[in-house]
Amino acid sequence: MSYPELKMLIAGEWVFGSTGKNEPVICPADGSEIGQVPHASPADLDRALDSSRDGFNNWRAMTPLSRQAILEKAAGLLEDRFEVNSANLTREMGKPLAEAKVEMQVAIDLLRWYGEEGKRIYGRIIPSRFPGMQHEARKVPVGPALAFVAWNFPATNVMRKVAGALAAGCSITIKPSEETPATAIAIGVALVDAGLPAGVLNIVFGVPSDVSEHLLSSTIPRKLSFTGSVPVGIHLQQLAAKNMIRCTMELGGHSPVMVFKDADIEAAAQLCAMGKFRNAGQVCISPTRFFVEAAVHDEFLAAFKKHVEAVNPGNGLDASTSMGPLVAERRIDIMDGFVSDAVAKGAELLVGGGRIQSPGSFYQATLLGNVPETARIMTEEPFGPIAPTISFHSLDEVIERANSLPFGLAAYAFTNSPKTVRILKSEIESGMLAINSLHVHSVETPFGGLKFSGYGYEGGIEGLDAFLATKYSSEIYN
Ligand code: NAD
Asked: Which of 375, 383, 444 is nearest to 409 (CA)?
């Protein structure tokens, strides 16, 4: 079982590209180089764009049933290659193999679900106010799509975009993260092997800003879907605006967790620890600000601490590992910065707080108590295994604090009060809210943010709609 040779998919061919330039792919568990990812030249990108235009014209002319048959076959191939692909995901990204397998399964489920849902793209007939006239609104694929995605979910970040676009009848050119290329390539290989026509999917790599600037300066793409940070999202929207390319923006978050005194405290603490350290906290919907009602603060913290101490960091391929490394060395200093800033401002360091070993970019599962809201970690997305906690006294107060940031992606609450739940559903400014769980995404439910966390949705019928346009026509019939 070895890490594959990395190539780009351009116009139906697997190629190294014409720059002759590569960059190393580093295994975050031991710092070793496991592959070389090629970079596309401007000419390679132009070929991808031209082929995505031609691929779109072929693909949209096919029936939804024939498209679904290809997506279904690719899902089956991904199932056949499940073990190898999951292990490679762990090698390049670091997350424990069990998490990689869950992610690969969700990616397969996404492909199946969207393939099926693509058969149900309905329009509507609108009764006219004029006699003898008929109004029709039909949904059509929006055109060749572009996608750029982050490294933290190498399979599902890619598949949410690829499956939605293909099921809608769009072609798509994607630049996955150069840090996690093999998983995206494995998805491409399955689709090509399943009979996807040339140009319907292109996979390119390179210097991210160069690639996006080149692709977005073309008038061929009609849609951009991006998963990544807020600043890059804003920059890409500005580039897309010049060619009136419509966007979906899945950006960063800083999710509040509100633990009320009427909750099951032990259950909440256990779930919070599981959710916080999943993927070493490198999850856009990771619980990141823990507000605990004063009356149960000490009880919750004691229970939470026990679970944080039980986290077992290590190589993701080792079965006993419950948390892998950070994706890259560059994230270690960022974590240290958050911890030292919080402690300098009065927070208590209760568990962890430093790197573990080198080589490998491991950071301890970290718990901070009494973190003042002036600490950077309370306003900047940590994207790592640090849990800052603080107490609150009233519902109004915690809602105000939860809503105080520009982000609005996910929020979580633990309570057994129906009244509190009703108020939170109405007042919390986030695209997703989970009560007594940390579950905010399924294949069939809409996933997306408010405020600076972006706009547009993936998942559910909304994720298909993201790749559709509505065409209206009227007709006088005699
Ligand atoms: P980032 O924005 O720097 O990079 C994200 C991806 O975009 C990477 O693959 C990178 O190569 C690429 N990229 C960077 N600059 C680019 C450019 N100019 N043009 C094109 N592509 C470019 O973010 P990051 O720090 O690597 O990833 C973590 C961020 O992503 C966090 O803020 C996280 O919350 C966010 N994220 C959001 C979601 C979501 O669905 N809302 C999911 C995962 C990650």
From this structure: 383
If you measure from the C-alpha of residue 265 to the centroid of ligand 1, how many angstroms do you get, rounded to a whole number?
34
Q: Is the preceding omega at residue 131 within 30 degrees of 0, hence cis? A: no
**pLDDT digit string, tens, across residues 262-317:** 999 999 999 999 999 999 999 999 999 999 999 999 999 999 999 999 999 999 99
Give the residue, out of 152, 248, 249, with the most ligand 1 atoms within 8 A of its beta carbon, to mutate for a pocket test. Answer: 152
For the CA of 453, the closest atom of ligand 1 is 41
pLDDT category of residue 337 using cuts at 50, 70 and 90: very high
Decide if 31 contacts 360 (C-beta within 8 A). yes
* CA 233 to ligand 1 center in whole angstroms: 8
Task: Report how far apart, in Å, the C-alpha atoms of 92 and of each of 17, 88, 107, 181, 188 are.
Answer: 21, 6, 17, 8, 17
Domains and CATH numbers, the chain: 8-251+453-474 (3.40.605.10), 255-442 (3.40.309.10)
Instruction: Tell me, yes or no, if the pTM score tops 0.85.
Output: yes
Please confirm, yes or no, whether 250 is among the known catalytic residues. yes
User: Hey, what are 396's tokens?
Assistant: 């109004």
Of the candidates 370, 373, 335, 381, which has an alpha carbon nearest to the alpha carbon of residue 354? Answer: 335
d(CA 117, CA 61): 17
* Residue the block writes with tokens 């190539």: 7
